[in-house]
């Protein structure tokens, strides 16, 4: 696998490395109904990454929107992150918010970032040490954002693509939400999908919170019959899209991006075509 994933054993071995920065991205709640029995457990030295509060655009009407490069840089520096930091991100749900944070750093030009495969659950399962509080004292970092706009797709680009078909679109929501037979968790929002998109529920690339093997992932993506065009990943609000993007990163060379507003933005836009099947 690529260095976008690291094992619990690797992290335990490098826990005290000078440049390693561990970020706990565990969410306070989630719309997928996932639950954790690991609340209160922290990997030693981990700093809390407040995805909703500090690292989402407060001016956006949509949840989880990527902040501006300047705001991201300021927030990352406040966590003591430097340009040479080797970042490892994890969450307490196996892989839920951590792939989003991995993608955010990559979008801002930081290459040395990995997701802890299996998250906090796999760390605990291996018997490695936990503490009950995050690290709160560190010097302000010198992180700089170098934004890669090609990693993000806007609503206008996605609508334009319905006719142009210049990139593939893969949706990480459940089969029921994609087909329009199950409701969206956000009240009053229609379920369904964009024309010419295909469905890969994020759970299908995971096994007990860990990413499936490269062989299994190759078969999963092969079954989607994708072309060699760039791939844009979507979901409800930009979170779980990053899970399947990270899975694709292990096995596909295609250029990859996220439709940041995802279904929440698309379904809220007047006049768009919503397919149900």
Write the layout of secondary structure elements.
Layout: E1 5-6, H1 8-13, E2 20-24, E3 47-48, H2 69-78, E4 86-90, H3 98-107, E5 113-116, H4 119-125, E6 152-153, H5 155-164, E7 168-171, H6 175-179, E8 198-199, E9 206-207, E10 210-211, H7 214-223, E11 231-234, H8 241-251, E12 256-259, H9 262-267
Parallel strand pairs: 1-5, 2-3, 2-4, 4-5, 6-12, 7-8, 7-11, 11-12
Antiparallel strand pairs: 9-10
Helix pairs in contact: 3-8, 7-8
What does this molecule look like?
The protein is an alpha/beta fold. The chain folds into two domains: 5-147, Oxidized Rhodanese, domain 1, CATH 3.40.250.10; 150-267, Rhodanese-like domain (Oxidized Rhodanese, domain 1, 3-Layer(aba) Sandwich). Helix content is 27%, strand content 14%. The chain is built from nine helices and twelve strands. The protein has helices at residues 8-13, 69-78, 98-107, 119-125, 155-164, 175-179, 214-223, 241-251, 262-267; strands at residues 5-6, 20-24, 47-48, 86-90, 113-116, 152-153, 168-171, 198-199, 206-207, 210-211, 231-234, 256-259. The strands form three sheets. A five-stranded parallel beta sheet has the order 1-5-4-2-3. A five-stranded parallel beta sheet has the order 6-12-11-7-8. It has a two-stranded antiparallel sheet with strand order 9-10. Helix 8 links the parallel strand 11 (231-234) and strand 12. Helix 3 crosses helix 8 (241-251) and helix 7 crosses helix 8. The longest helix has 11 residues, at 241-251. The protein is globular, with a radius of gyration of 18 Å. The two termini are 35 Å apart. The model has no long low-confidence stretch (mean pLDDT 96).
């Amino acid at each position: 696998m690529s260095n976008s994933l690291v094992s619990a054993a690797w992290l335990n071995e490098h826990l005290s490395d000078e440049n390693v920065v561990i970020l706990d991205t565990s969410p306070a709640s989630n719309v997928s109904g996932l639950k954790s029995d690991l609340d209160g457990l922290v990997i030693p030295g981990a700093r809390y990454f407040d995805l909703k509060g500090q690292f989402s655009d407060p001016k956006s009407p949509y949840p989880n929107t990527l902040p501006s490069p300047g705001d991201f840089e300021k927030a990352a520096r406040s966590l003591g992150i430097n340009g040479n930091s080797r970042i490892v991100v994890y969450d307490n749900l196996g892989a839920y918010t951590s792939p989003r944070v991995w993608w955010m750093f990559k979008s801002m030009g930081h290459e040395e970032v990995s997701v802890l495969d299996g998250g906090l659950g796999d760390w605990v399962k291996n018997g490695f040490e936990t503490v009950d509080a995050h690290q709160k004292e560190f010097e302000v970092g010198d992180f700089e954002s170098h934004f890669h706009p090609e990693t993000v797709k806007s609503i206008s680009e996605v609508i334009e693509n319905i006719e142009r078909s210049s990139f593939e679109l893969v949706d990480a929501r459940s089969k029921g939400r994609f087909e329009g037979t199950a409701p969206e968790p956000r009240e009053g929002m229609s379920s369904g999908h964009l024309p010419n998109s295909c469905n890969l529920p994020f759970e299908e690339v995971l096994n007990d919170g860990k990413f499936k093997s490269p062989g299994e992932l190759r078969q999963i993506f092969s079954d989607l019959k994708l072309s060699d065009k760039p791939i844009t990943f979507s979901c409800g609000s930009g979170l779980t899209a990053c899970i399947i993007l990270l899975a694709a990163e292990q096995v596909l060379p295609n250029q990859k991006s996220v439709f940041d507003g995802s279904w929440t933005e698309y379904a809220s836009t007047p006049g768009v075509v919503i397919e149900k099947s």
